[in-house]
Amino acid sequence: MSRTVIRGGLVITASDEIHADVLIEDGRIAALAASGTPAAEAWTAEKVIDATGKYVIPGGVDAHTHMELPFGGTFASDTFETGTRAAAWGGTTTIVDFAVQSVGHTLREGLDAWHAKAEGNCAIDYAFHMIVSDVNQETLKEMDLLVEEGVTSFKQFMAYPGVFYSDDGQILRAMQRSAENGGLIMMHAENGIAIDVLVEQALARGETDPRYHGEVRKALLEAEATHRAIKLAQVAGAPLYVVHVSAMEAVAELARARDEGLNVFGETCPQYLFLSTDNLAEPGFEGSKYVCSTPLRPREHQAKLWQGLRTNDLQVVSTDHCPFCFVGQKELGRGDFSKIPNGLPGVENRMDLLHQAVVDGHISRRRWIEVACATPARMFGMYPKKGTITPGADADVVIYDPHAEQTVSAETHHMNVDYSAYEGKRITGRVETVLSRGEPVITEREYTGRAGHGVYTPRSTCQYLN
Length: 466
Description:
Layout: E1 3-12, E2 17-25, E3 28-34, H1 38-41, E4 47-50, E5 55-58, E6 60-65, E7 70-71, E8 74-75, H2 80-89, E9 92-100, H3 107-118, E10 125-131, H4 137-148, E11 153-157, H5 168-181, E12 184-188, H6 192-204, H7 211-216, H8 219-236, E13 240-242, H9 248-259, E14 264-268, H10 270-274, H11 277-280, H12 301-311, E15 316-317, H13 350-359, H14 365-379, E16 397-407, E17 426-436, E18 439-442
Parallel strand pairs: 1-4, 1-5, 6-9, 9-10, 10-11, 11-12, 12-13, 13-14, 14-15
Antiparallel strand pairs: 1-2, 2-3, 5-16, 7-8, 16-17, 17-18
Helix pairs in contact: 4-5, 5-8, 8-9
């Protein structure tokens, strides 16, 4: 039996903050005991980690990543190997990535393809959601089978006509099926049909720069689609999870639905909390680095997103990590913003940025852990195996130095992308050591993990319903 003891740290979970020692046996949390007590002092182990003056927190759960995603004639630049290694550097120990059903193909074909990409390559544990692009009777039957085997969430798109888009009838059918089988529908809520009209008109006017990406994807079209998705879910009697919420008007739609007692949930991402249309308008072609969908919004939206996180109208912060290099990938859209691959790198930055939000007074320490670890684990059926530090949980543990200072930069990050969306940002707090199922992946700021340590994690259904 392998044993590790973490001594002297402040253990922070979504519900508690306690000065406690943590005993790990065979990859799981075996016990916690108040530091300095006879019970804790009696523990012996081959390995002792001194966490004095540090936080001991659960490994982050990033429930929205896109490794190796095909998009716009190219692929996301992080592989499962590089992306999960970068995640570990940032204190994330579980990702939930999106397997893609292509139109004309089955869910199973898409899922098998993503298993093949990930298996044997991940530094940390991983699971899958399923993107449903082609709703038909066979697809609906397959949804039942996938839920049974631990793929319990399905993403649909109201955006990207001709690629991932589902119309209201297809969305309703999938929602009705998920109401029966326990699956959770995740929605990209933007009115893609209307946006395409605005894109066409902008390009005809000669408005080709990256900033117009934000102007055509209007906040009102995010709000309208969010409202429509909520009503369709209500008709179907199904829960709904709206991904990457960026606009205050969309937050208001979620808050209204939740005030009515509906099982409607919202996720936002660090880029919407820390970046804005100011970035999209950076001179030259620099703005292309910040092209993602939903788009960055004017700065005044940030306060409403932070408020939503505090009031639990938004429950989760994920990254929507989908990196494309500036050179050779983002540049595909020079002269036509609609050809810029949509996505930002961020899987390595999320835990640190949210700790900075604690320092800045936006959220509490426990809320940090709640939105980044515990709630994503509960939302997607992995709690308490993931997302907390409690006896029986996987020993996914981060030793976090709340006083260390760092400057975010592409020079020092580990994501396989040639720029940082947060270049030059100063942050207080830094990951020091990361354990994944008790195995050291990062040891005092050195990578000690390996591709293939991470294992596929089947999930139960949503544990966050009213």
